[in-house]
Design goal:
- The protein is of the alpha/beta class.
- Helix content is about 40%, strand content about 10%.
- The protein contains 12 helices and 9 strands.
- The chain has a 3-stranded antiparallel beta sheet.
- Strand 8, helix 8 and strand 9 form a beta-alpha-beta unit.
- Helix 7 packs across helix 8.
- It is globular and about 60 Å long.
- The mean pLDDT is about 90.
Length: about 300
């Protein structure tokens, strides 16, 4: 809740709701508000209003991640006990300087699927005493997944995809967590990250199907690795195409012209929203999706 829902959120919510109801499942609403500086109550209220206006209902009370930091801390402690996380101390400016210095020589620096540079990993091989000493004296500690050690523990991983990735990938997908380097799992100011909190929430809420945009397709590799490390059940993923603007860019919560609240204020109806996102065409594919999911189940 750090902005207003837009047409892309409408497509995702409508598809998720239809799949849940069509399969006799629960449709869950989760408020992912771990960023307590940008998330605001008025945006949460707007989310509830927009979904209700679209005609969607959800099961149970929405889960607010800000109310469950303890569960994420517990998961992080389990990962520490496995020896697959480490504290890191380089700030963003120091990382940028290190990357720029290497790239200035013409050598490439590895980057994750979102284009962000991998963390240098200076602290990865420090012994326990050295880590403890640096942690005590550090102002800002960021806990990162030691992907290399984690993969030694889990071995190769896959996930079941019933939608499609950016290049049309579907079926049983080979996970590639190493493509993300050593992702952040918790920061000094927030005891969790998106990756850790959604994996814990999915497990605690009994989620069997994750429906989301294909911009998160590659992040599934990290989620599968965390699930395997923590002994969580593997859900089925369904990544769907994004709603894009005229330039082909995915929509943002800062795009007021595609915000559901703005469109509603301008006189649009829920039926108009469905037409804008070509929902009838999407809906016609639901029987095929139902069959695929039932075959897997």
């Amino acid at each position: 809740p750090n902005g207003l829902l837009h047409l892309g959120h409408a497509r995702s919510a409508l598809l998720d709701h239809a799949l849940a109801r069509g399969l006799g499942g629960r449709f869950l609403l989760r408020i992912e508000d771990i960023d307590t500086t940008r998330c605001r109550p008025e945006y949460e209220a707007a989310i509830l209003a927009d979904l209700t206006w679209l005609g969607l209902d959800w099961d149970g009370v929405p889960r607010r991640q800000s109310e469950h930091f303890g569960a994420y801390r517990d998961a992080l402690e389990r990962l520490k006990a496995l020896g697959v996380v480490y504290p890191s101390f380089l700030g963003r400016g120091e990382i940028r300087a290190r990357v720029a210095a290497v790239e200035a020589t013409g050598r490439p620096w590895p980057r994750d699927p979102d284009g962000a540079p991998h963390y240098p990993g200076d602290e990865r091989d420090l012994d326990v005493a050295a880590r403890a000493a640096r942690t005590v004296n550090a102002r800002h500690v960021v806990w990162r997944l030691d992907t290399r050690r984690a993969l030694v523990r889990t071995g190769p991983l896959t996930w079941r995809e019933t939608g499609a990735g950016p290049a049309g990938e579907t079926g049983r997908i080979a996970a590639d967590p190493a493509a993300w380097g050593d992702p952040v799992l918790a920061r000094w100011e927030v005891p969790t990250s998106y990756h850790l909190s959604v994996v814990v929430d999915d497990a605690l809420q009994g989620v069997t199907h994750v429906v989301r945009g294909c911009d998160l397709f590659h992040a599934t590799s990290v989620h599968r690795l965390l699930q395997a490390l923590l002994g969580f059940a593997e859900p089925i993923w369904h990544h769907h195409a994004l709603v894009t603007d005229e330039a082909g860019r995915k929509l943002s919560k800062s795009d007021a012209d595609t915000a559901l609240a703005q469109l509603r204020a301008a006189g649009a109806s829920p039926e108009d929203i469905r037409r804008m996102i070509d929902w009838p065409a999407t809906e016609r594919s639901l029987p095929t999706i139902y069959r695929a999911l039932r075959d897997i189940a």
